Amino acid sequence: MGEVLIRPRREVVRGPLMGDPGALGRFGEYGGRYVPESLIGVCREVEEAFREAWADPAYRGQLDRLLSTYAGRPTPLTPALRLSAELGVTVLLKREDLAHTGSHKINNVLGQALLAKRMGRTRLIAETGAGQHGVATATAAALFGLRATVFMGARDVERQELNVFRMRMLGAEVVPVHSGAQTLKDATSEAMRHWVGAVDEAHYCMGSVLGPAPYPWMVRELQRVIGDEARRQCATELRAAVPDYVVACVGGGSNAAGTFAGFVDTPARLVGVEADGGAGASRGRLGVLHGVRSMFLQDEHGQVAEAHSIAAGLDYPGIGPEHVHLRDLGRARYVSVSDSEVTEAAMRLARTEGIIAALESAHAVAWVLRGQIPAGSTVLITLSGRGDKDLATLKEAL
Ligand SMILES: *Cc1c(COP(=O)(O)O)cnc(C)c1O
Prior knowledge:
This protein has two domains: 26-63 and 105-215, Rossmann fold, CATH 3.40.50.1100; 73-103 and 224-397, Rossmann fold, CATH 3.40.50. The chain has 15 helices and 17 strands. It has helices spanning 37-54, 57-69, 81-87, 105-118, 132-144, 154-159, 161-169, 184-196, 215-237, 254-261, 280-283, 321-329, 339-353, 359-369, 391-397, and strands spanning 3-6, 13-16, 26-27, 30-31, 77-79, 90-95, 123-128, 147-153, 173-177, 202-204, 245-249, 269-275, 285-289, 292-296, 318-319, 332-337, 378-383. β7, α5 and β8 form a beta-alpha-beta unit. The site of pyridoxal-5'-phosphate has 18 residues, from α10 and α14.
């Protein structure tokens, strides 16, 4: 990572951004490893194994090959010509919707499954909300001949019948979680508890840039491929090489982190778009949840609150620690959009470009549609996933 000079509000900070957070896994005052004693050892082991693998050309070569022969990478960069003409800005779409399983999540799970194999693990444990990360994990498990156990809130199991079927079809065991609000937060807690009793055989496959160190860093590195590819593709597509704006939706923040990592050392303005009802960066408060110190939606008693979004993948009450750090430094901004702006953006993209994007991804498009970007600018939007899964929701909303 290049050395960059940035000017946040008060002080000047010099240092590599989006580099290695070191053994403490800290991004400024965020991050860390807040887990029970019984998980400290295995977190360290995962960190050591990943550090070694990431520096090993054999692991990188295997992963690159899987990404191209199995996941469909590189994904295209599509100039959105009609939308650009309508908005008076040049819009480029990074097409993670065209990756296998329909979103960027496959990049992360292939890397972690390959790591699990290397560590001699025979099982993957994962949490899932809408089921997208569960499906990706089940997919990677099938590919590698690993067992997969996916924890899912009982309410989500009911709401996401099709994804539950997909996971089971892929050979995964889906465990409904009946505690708390029976959604993603509870599923994650239960999955981590289960991991405590299975650390020797199971790898915990975290779905976003969350959880205890090394997960926020490891998942960002595994998603960096989005930003690295886009950077090269932009250089071909744009005479100026680097877009003026780089925009991505933020749930936990993995597709945004992977995208930003490719541009953090350029003058591009980085914008993360959250859901109004899941805005950890804008409305969260400092706290510790699922092993990490970051910003979480909380009630007046400091209890973590439920998030609400029309996009199930943005229904997490927190945001990854590195995003909060980037925000504090003034290097990235975080904004939020409403459900109705999102459905409108999904329709507009469908009709101008012939692309039905995931409702999560439509958040990024919705912010660009607000028209706050100066005419003549160039904008890269990461389309994190495809919208097939959201058709029933859209049909109801429109
Ligand atoms: C899961 C998901 C997200 C949110 O996760 P991040 O970690 O914030 O990227 C966004 N888009 C799609 C399509 C998803 O499936």
